[in-house]
Amino acid sequence: MDRFFFNTDVKTDKKNMLLDQDNIPSHIAIIMDGNGRWAKQKGLPRVAGHREGMKTITNVVEKANDIGIQFLTLYAFSTENWKRPKTEVDFLMKLPERFLDKELPALQKNNVKVKTIGDPSLLPPHTKQAVDKAVRETENNSGLVLNFALNYGGRHELVEAVRKLGREVEHGHLKPEDITESLFSDRLLTSEIPDPDLLIRTSGEIRLSNFMLWQLAYSEFWFTEVLWPDFNGGHLVEAVQRYQQRKRRYGGV
Ligand code: FPP
Q: Is 178 a catalytic residue?
């Protein structure tokens, strides 16, 4: 079990020093889970867990930057999350602007580039505007890419890519036999981002929940029982250490 789970109460970032600087994952993707349970354990409303989860993002971005991660993708809202009670959805839709209102100056200062993946068409205008503004204002930054998956669904993304290719074939720009894995990847929302090297999911759930289904084909997975609001920079370092102990074979020997 220990290979997949690592329960830790690491509170400091001292372990940073133990990382192999030649084997830092370029892209880490995180399924931030457990906000609701964190709140319930404390007798608080679920939204209090999301508010605390937002604070975790600040710490994790800072630590990812420190470690030298180049891409950090955070699953902030899935295409299935609309099924939650309206009050919770409304609250979740306010978090990107709250986060960016507060953190954008620091993100700028740290040369972070904000990006998003997902279908923006259903996002409320206030959410979309806040995110678009951050993307625009950080587009020339060359540091960590902070990629928010917002109204993102892996299957939806795959279907959209197939539709794009279908249209290209229909218009005679492409023959079906020209379609390769690389050409397919180029039609995905992550066309400018390498596949994640490491996937982290918090809160003890061991599933993908429709996240980056194509891109995670060869990623290393690390699951922790720590709830997202309790996750910190020390845990991120722990995850990278675990990653560094793995041998990636990509189907070879
Ligand atoms: C899963 O926990 C978490 C979410 C669906 C939302 C994640 C959002 C944040 C951490 C904050 C987003 C902030 C920004 C800036 C985009 P859950 O509610 O499913 O937890 P549970 O499984 O314990 O109920």
A: no
